[in-house]
Design a protein that fits this description.
Shape of chain A: globular
Radius of gyration of chain B: 27 Å
Oligomer: heterodimer
Distance between the termini of chain A: 26 Å
Structural class of chain B: mainly beta
Helix content of chain A: 25-40%
Order of helices and strands of chain B: EEEEEEEEEEEHHEHEEEEEEEEEE
Order of helices and strands of chain A: EEEHHEEEEHHEEEHHHEH
Largest sheet of chain A: 5 strands, antiparallel
Radius of gyration of chain A: 18 Å
Number of helices of chain B: 3
Helix content of chain B: under 10%
């Protein structure tokens, strides 16, 4: 649904201090309520090809399929917003597109990308992710990590093999267990959350989350909430000051007011009589 | 790939690649690292390697396992760690850190995001220019490894710079002091004028956050850009004058 004037969005991507090119890609589209961030991987420039394909495919698929809907409708089978299902289909297409290029172009063999994408509609947000790019939410003063990394480290943490203290000094931070475009099919992890005006959503690549502690992210977002542009620059700067060993990308999105679907009352009514 | 270098009183005894999931250490001959010393238990400790990480676990040995002078039960090995077993020492050398030191750069290629598959490795998996997690440059000679050990592994710069303070010079809060010990501190009145002072490795910077007027330093408006603060600069914000100064601790 068209969220111009409702959703405030700031995007920023930076090459960092050590890399000579930027393999991250970011995009947003107010008309479809989409924000998307991808962190490409693969030799030479293949990583940026993969992340670019991912981001462009999502934006165009959402525009193609979501704009013609009234917006904010719930799919009866899954209970999810239709926008979420469109996002899932778009990710399937992006996966095939990247995979096909990597199979046909030798210089792109093995390329892939992480992905985190969110679609805002009907006072909710659908969040899909693959790999270790993350979404956080600042609500009031509290920062929560919304996505759970698909990474070896996170699996070790969840199964209790290592402690959070050990995870901080691990050398396995770069190993993801799921990526877009490396296999013929991929599973998008998709969840839906209710949104409150004033929430700040942060999408970021691991160039930020590996180098800036959650407490510092929390401090930055809450102290600089009056100026999201500055908050984004501050986050990137902190990652660079801490070494900037990878590309750093952030998207900040803040709903300024409620955005219920126009047919919201009808959904509720049919819901009662079902 | 990482390895363990075994020494006795500083003399080289042997080296062991951490190329399998489990490496055993002990006095019994069936151990991968066999140390014939009475201070070492029959089955003393194991090293489990997962991806680029190696975990050292003590197997309830009689004399315990000491890493860098401290007894441990389970420890995630870091480049340069020294494991003490009786009179013997095992030094942990991480390939990534060695390569980084050898080329004088960072362990960049090792930090590139890569996919790890739970199933068998597929031929298309590793990107052509990025090394697979365990494969690269296994042919490091011992001399390079030991030379590299002299250098420190890259670590974030820890500054011991003086800490910035703000003292209010006028108005009801005159004399009040604020220590700028956080990454960022906001000053001013929300909705009217707010600025942030950020603490960075090379100094303190003031930046405009919100409001129609911009911060004034030493009588000059600094605009919307970040402005580096010097010792004893006078900062003016929403009518309040403050002095910025640096002091130890």
């Amino acid at each position: 649904m068209n969220l111009s004037g409702v959703l405030e969005i700031v995007r920023l991507t930076d090459v960092g201090q050590r890399r000579d090119h930027n393999e991250d890609a970011v995009a947003s589209d107010l008309e479809t309520g989409l924000v998307v961030l991808a962190d490409g991987m693969g030799g030479y420039k293949a990583g940026e090809v993969a992340s670019e394909i991912a981001v462009l495919t999502l934006v165009s698929e959402l525009r193609e399929n979501a704009l013609k809907l009234p917006g904010g409708e719930v799919d009866e089978d899954s209970g999810l917003l239709r926008e979420g299902l469109i996002l899932r289909d778009a990710v399937t297409k992006a996966n095939s597109a990247i995979y096909n290029v990597s199979q046909s172009q030798p210089q792109c063999a093995g390329m892939g990308t992480t992905l985190v994408a969110a679609v805002f509609a009907n006072d909710r947000v659908c969040v899909g992710h693959i790999g270790d790019s993350r979404m956080y939410r600042l609500r009031g003063e509290e920062l929560s990590q919304i996505t759970e990394d698909h990474s070896l480290l996170n699996e070790q943490l969840k199964s209790g093999l290592i402690t959070p203290e050990q995870a901080r000094i691990s050398n396995n931070k770069n190993l993801v267990t799921r990526a877009l475009g490396v296999d013929p099919t991929v599973e998008l992890e998709l969840h839906e959350y209710e949104v409150q005006p004033g929430d700040i959503y942060l999408l970021c690549s691991d160039g930020l989350s590996d180098l800036v502690e959650n407490e510092e992210i929390q401090l930055t977002l809450s102290a600089l909430s009056a100026n999201l542009e500055l908050a984004a620059h501050q986050l990137v700067q902190m990652a660079n000051d801490n070494g900037g060993k990878d590309n750093i990308s952030v998207i900040l999105a803040r709903p300024l007011q409620p955005f219920p679907a126009k047919n919201g009352w009808r959904d509720k009514l049919t819901g009662w009589f079902r | 790939m990482a390895k363990l270098i075994l020494t006795l009183d500083g003399a080289f005894v042997g080296e062991h690649d951490l190329d399998k999931e489990l490496l055993t250490i002990g006095r019994r001959p069936n151990n991968d690292v066999h140390i014939d010393n009475l201070a070492v238990s029959g089955n003393h400790a194991v090293v489990r390697t997962i991806g680029n990480d190696s975990f050292l676990e003590d197997l309830d040995s009689t004399n315990g396992t000491i890493v860098n002078g401290k007894p441990i039960k389970k420890h995630i090995l870091q480049h340069g760690d020294i494991i003490e077993l009786g009179k013997y020492q095992l030094k942990y050398v991480s390939e990534a850190a060695v390569n980084a030191a050898a080329i004088g750069g960072s362990a960049e290629d090792f930090e590139k995001t890569m996919i790890i598959r739970p199933t068998a490795v597929q031929p298309a998996a590793p990107p052509p220019n990025a090394p697979a997690p365990t494969a690269p440059a296994a042919s490091q000679t011992t001399t390079t490894a030991q030379e590299a050990l002299q250098q420190k592994a890259p670590s974030p710069v820890q500054e011991e710079a003086p800490v910035g303070h703000i003292q209010v010079l006028n108005g009801p809060g005159a004399g009040r002091e604020l220590v700028l010990n956080k990454a960022l501190t906001t000053l001013g009145k929300p909705g009217i004028q707010v600025a942030v002072i950020t603490r960075r490795p090379h100094g303190y910077f003031v930046t405009h956050v919100e409001g129609t007027s911009h911060p004034v330093v030493n009588g000059q408006s600094v605009g919307a850009q970040a402005h580096e603060l010097k010792d004893h600069d006078v900062l003016e914000l929403a009518g309040v004058k403050m002095e910025f100064f640096l002091s130890k601790g």
